[in-house]
Structures are given as C-alpha cells and as structure tokens.
Amino acid sequence: PDPSPLPQEKFCEFNTGIRSPPKQMVCCGCPWIPGSAQGQAGLRGLDPPGISGVVMDGVGVGWDLRSLPTQPIPRSWCCRELPGPGSGIRSQPWAGAAPHPCFVPVPAEASQEIFRIASMAPGALLLEAQKEYEKESQKADEYLREIREQQLLPEAVGQCIEAAGYEHEPDTQSSLLRAASFGKCFLDKFPPEGFVRMCQDLRVLNAIRDYQIGIPLTFTQYKQLTIEVLLDRLVLRRLYPLAIRICEFLRLPEMQGVSRILAHWACYKVQQKDKSDEEVAQAINRISYSDIATRAYDCGRAELAIKLLEYEPRSGEQVPLLLKMKRSKLALGKAIESGDTDL
C-alpha cells in the first residue's frame, strides 16, 4: 500500500442528470497511483435502467469531465477488469444474451505513442514506413531514415511489439507485428525472443477470444493468470482438443500439458453414465503412449521413452520406436512376446 495520504482536493463536479442515487461506483485507474495514466470512475444508476458512465480523464493538471453514453442494460452490475496498467469497467448482465459494454483506459504507453494523432514517436513512424513500403512508396525510406538518424529503430520495434499485445483486433495486431518485423530487418543484433513470444501469445489469445470459446482475456489478464490457469479453465469447460493444441503449440512439458489434460479427459469419460463400459474403455484406449514416448525421445530423454513404452499395450507401436532408438534386443523381446511373426 502507498503510505502517502490520498489527496483531499476537489478537482471537479458534474451533474449526471440522474434523479435516483447511484447503486454502484467502480474505479478505473487512479491518478495518484504510479503506473496509472488516468483517473476514471463509472456509475450505475436506475433512471434510466442500466449503466450510466461518467469519465474523468486526468490530462496534466487539467481535468476533462464528460458523460459516456452506453447502451442501457437492465438488471446488470458493474465489475472491474484488468486490461492494462489501471483497471477497466464492464457491465455484467444478470442473465441472458445481453452485451457486456466495457470502457478502459488506453492500457500501454506504446499504444498511446503510436496511435496519437500526428504522433512522431518512433513506433508511429515505423508503422507508417511499413504501410508505405506495402504501397511501394518512397516515403517508406524517408520515414525509416528519420528513425535511423535518431538511432531509435530498436525502440520503434519494441513499441510496435508491445502495442500489438494490447490490441484486440487481429488486423491491427498483424499490422503492428508486420511493422516490427519490417524494422527488425534493418537491425543487426535485435533479440527475436520478444517478437516470437508475442506472436505465440496473440495466437493463443485470439483462439480463446473466438465466439465459440468465449474467453475474451486481455493480454495483461493472460499474463497474470499464467498459461497453467488458462488450461485449467479450458479443461473445466471440457475444451480438451483446444487445450491440447495450445500445449503442443507452446511446447509445454508433457506432465504439465498434454498428459495432464488427457488424465482429466479420461476421468471425465469414466463418469459418463450414458456410455457403456465397452465404449468408454475403447475411447480411453486411444491414448497413445507411443506418441508421448516419441516426443520424449525427440527431447533427448531415451530412458523416459522406454519407461513410457511399458504402458503401451500394443506391441506394434512399441517395436518400431525401439528400433528407431536402436534398442534392437529389447525390440526383439517385445516382438517375441507378442507372438506376431510379422513383428
């Protein structure tokens, strides 16, 4: 907690025009908290029913007070979100298919620098340079030369990568990442890890934001929750295929990723009373330990692969991998035990 006392000065007053007292007030960032760019508040009233927004934006020492019109949503309440350095405000309906309007401060300084009107920030210039390059215009060279003369090209690439994480539209994300990739071509020693990690994170976020999945996490929420918590949420929703694809895409360790998800899936299958014992047993039997063993061998853990193959009931899956691992005697023993002359 910040030990300094809260400010007692009254900055402004505003008449909301709502006769009934507000039912709820939710803060969205505070100007006296380091890292919070704006001080904002939202009010929920009953006349008219739904959300009535009041926003106070701190700009330097001045204040701009304005009302925020939102679609009235009956039987709802406000809840805080965490989209960036501050928090956001979202209307949460009690039930039904009502929308969830949300307003938030611009979450990242990089986004403010790039998308501010007439911005001359290095990230904004790099974005314009990339757009002009796609048009085959000579202005691309002019923008790029201006950035390089100031020796701000690494900063420009970093701004574009950071801003991409806080955008929700895939087209805007792609535009910023293309600009970052364009700028990296003119740098000799720019570390690629941040760019690659952002591409991976955005691909996961866009997958779970799909309307069929319905988990619209922000980049900050995703980082604070961690990938393990996100996988747990997918498992609880029984979205096992998506969870497994995310594990394979991020190359998570087997015990933390695919194996754990398959264990949850198997536990769910045995609880399905509408399925016969034979159907459940056949479904669980499709789990291929040989695939996991192959992955372990590819990671350089040959002994672990051999131990995993002991759980594989099909000799036809054991023998080829043992031969690939150059364990001929062990493969011959498994073939003889199977009684299959072809093996």
Automatic annotation (TrEMBL):
Tell me one GO molecular function of this protein: actin binding
Biological-process GO terms, alphabetical? endosomal transport; intracellular protein transport; vacuole fusion, non-autophagic
Q: Which organism is it from?
A: Ploceus nigricollis
| Pfam families for the chain | Vps16_C, Vps16_N
- Print the keywords alphabetically: Coiled coil
Q: Which residues form a coiled coil?
A: 126-153
The record places domain Vps16 C-terminal at: 287-343
What the record says about family reads: Belongs to the VPS16 family.
Q: Name one GO cellular component term.
A: HOPS complex
User: What InterPro entries is this protein classified in?
Assistant: VPS16 (IPR016534), Vps16_C (IPR006925), Vps16_N (IPR006926)
Residues of the Vps16 N-terminal domain: 109-197
Question: Which gene is the coding source of this polypeptide chain?
Answer: Vps16
Protein name, please?
A: Vacuolar protein sorting-associated protein 16 homolog
